[in-house]
Specification:
The protein is built from nine helices and eleven strands. It has about 270 residues and is of the alpha/beta class. It has one domain: TIM Barrel (Alpha-Beta Barrel). The strands form two sheets. Strands 1-2-3-4-7-9-10-11 form an eight-stranded parallel β-barrel, surrounded by five helices.
Amino acid sequence: MKNLFEHEFGRRRLLIGMVHTLALPGAPCYDRAGGMRRIVSRAKEEVRILSDAGFHAVLYCNESDMPYQTRMEPATISAMTEVIAEVQAGLKILHGVNLLLDPGASMAVANATNGRFIRAFLTGATVGDTGLFVPDGAGVLRLRANLNAENVKIICNVTPGFSVSLDSRPVEEQAAGAVFIGLADAVCVSGPAAGREADLSLIKRVSARVPETPVVVGTGVSADNIEAMAEIADGFIVGTSLKIDGRTLNPVDPARVAEFMAAAGRIHG
């Protein structure tokens, strides 16, 4: 339903701040000297900044775990679970999970940590920097049912990052399929890579094609375009534009967060 975010989260338009965790144990870039303590410390500080600024939710993502896996290892799943559990303890801000590129792992971690949503692919197939990728949408929906975790909503990507879709249909038709076949709770339109602005005309077409489903903008949301995006979309995942020097894997910059929220305040009141 179009008013899902208002019904589930009490927000007509949902502002989601990205928490790009430092590389987790097992990943090539994992900092063994800093260990889990450094990962948790950084995540805590970033969530504090985003929460204090007024973001409605945060999305934890293992963005630093390049190259990305289509099936998470136990060490990755357990580490992300620990990070989220420690950071969220005592906080009221909603959270979601995006373990790249494993929707089942995202669902399991979200369920274990009282998360309210995941971001994942459910349908289609892509090829690019991550190789050939075919998501197991059927598996994650069945996992959610078996876990009795229907409160964990699925924001389904309908545009790939660092790759191209093997589906030749217009993106808006792929979005319709993600809703009908994939049972997506919301659909997410992004640019071609992290930090790259999504095509406004494409967001409009997707929104028109799935009028009863919330549309989320997944990349490139900034203080400069949030007002235009908010005329069409229902949710906004904001990451790169909030980082020091506008670089995806840098720490969150409080000044950039304040600038973004000032712009967002003009639409949220």
